Amino acid sequence: MNSRFFITSFIFISFLLSSCELNEDQKVDPKIYLQSLDISIGENRIPFYIKRSDGSFVAEDPSLLSVIYYKKEDAVKLNATNTKWRNFPLRSGIYVTDMEFDSTGIWIVEVLFSEIKNPMKGQLIVKAKTDSPNIGTSAPKVKTKIINDSNPIETITSDINPDPKLYEISLDRALEKKIPILITLSTPGYCRSATCGPQTKVLSNLIKIYESDKIIFIHIEIFDNPAEMKKSGDTSIGIKSTQVTEWKITTEPWTFLINNRGLIVERYEGFVSFEELQEDISDLLKGTN
Questions:
Q1: Is the pTM value of this prediction over 0.85?
Q2: In which domain, by residue range, is 162 found?
Q3: For helices 196-207 and 274-286, angle between their N-to-C axes, nearest 10 degrees
């Protein structure tokens, strides 16, 4: 798949993500924007933000938010759990919450807080199975590019300020070490959401606080030929990497936390903050994840 198709697909999916609000009255202010597409039955991490008509973002204390979700045809309404405020590179922050779905179909999300009288509404489409690897499944054991004489760093990442430590070991070899792994699949130089560069920076910052024998950090570039793309200035010549195909992602960035048995324990669609990753890594290393 070339970059034109992937980037066009990403723009379309990004439009869907930013359009997942469901307000009968389009003058409703503020509105909720749900930021997750690859959702299935079971527990899911759901990020969302709330935006006013003047362009400002709501940063209400998450403990004061009421977040419920339900299917139209069901009378039972469920409460989202563990709603937290997370730092975000494009705005002051974003909310992240946990929702557990027991059936496929369209689910309604309602959010209420002190500033408004009527709840904001959005919708999510829940599938029987996620496209990308889900929690509890084995991480695809793929060979990823590393820095060596044949592969200088500019040929394996589009990051303009790459961290060599993210390209020291291939994923398949890392999985053989039987220690946790955090991987990000993204294209820092060509990311349309402008969060891929910040995401790899988050990984670089995490490397500084964890010993290399405790957890491995890896970045996988979306495109197979980033140096060629940069030299020509033409993104349409980009070739989607086989590693990305194996992971079956349709948006980016995506980040996955893998335990010492090679199983995915957390998955993050879109940007995930340093704080959230640090919490989950700490839980994993303590044996609580």
A1: yes
A2: 153-286
A3: 40
